[in-house]
Amino acid sequence: xxxxxxxxxxxxxxxxxxxxxxxxxxxxxxxxxxxxxxxxxxxxxxxxxxxxxxxxxxxxxxxxxxxxxxxxxxxxxxxxxxxxxxxxxxxxxxxxxxxxxxxxxxxxxxxxxxxxxxxxxxxxxxxxxxxxxxxxxxxxxxxxxxxxxxxxxxxxxxxxxxxxxxxxxxxxxxxxxxxxxxxxxxx
Length: 187
Fold this sequence. Notes:
Blueprint: E1 3-5, E2 20-23, H1 29-43, H2 51-61, E3 68-73, H3 81-85, E4 91-100, E5 103-110, H4 122-130, E6 138-141, H5 148-155, E7 159-163, H6 167-179
Parallel strand pairs: 1-7, 2-3, 2-6, 6-7
Antiparallel strand pairs: 3-5, 4-5
Helix pairs in contact: 4-5
């Protein structure tokens, strides 16, 4: 039931079927540049996507009637909100979380009244939020990275579908989804 694919958000005409979208996109243009450089170094793929293109595509493809959670650095999250709101997404809550030792992030909850409590770490925020849904949900993550969100979704007993543009990072994500082909709760 869990799935991973190697694809850029910019290559989607529409997202795959999902119930919830949970993602951690690049936080600003400098981070986007780092991902482009890493993609060239790791896979020889040259791209010129920008932060604005990525976030606009997210807003365009995400369904405004389904929950959308965006993890973002506390310094930059105000750059994301207007781009998603212009595509019909309704910001309901902003929860603050410790992410790394010296960093904080927020989870922006759009289109839903279910959101994480403040001051839980990122993985716990995902699990606690998903536990608020009464049935198993299919969570799609268009910025899947190395599989941290995948592990949290699967450990919460839900289904996961992730997409990662970088082939070397995708291999690690794929290993996570293949290792955890079945969900922990209620298999």
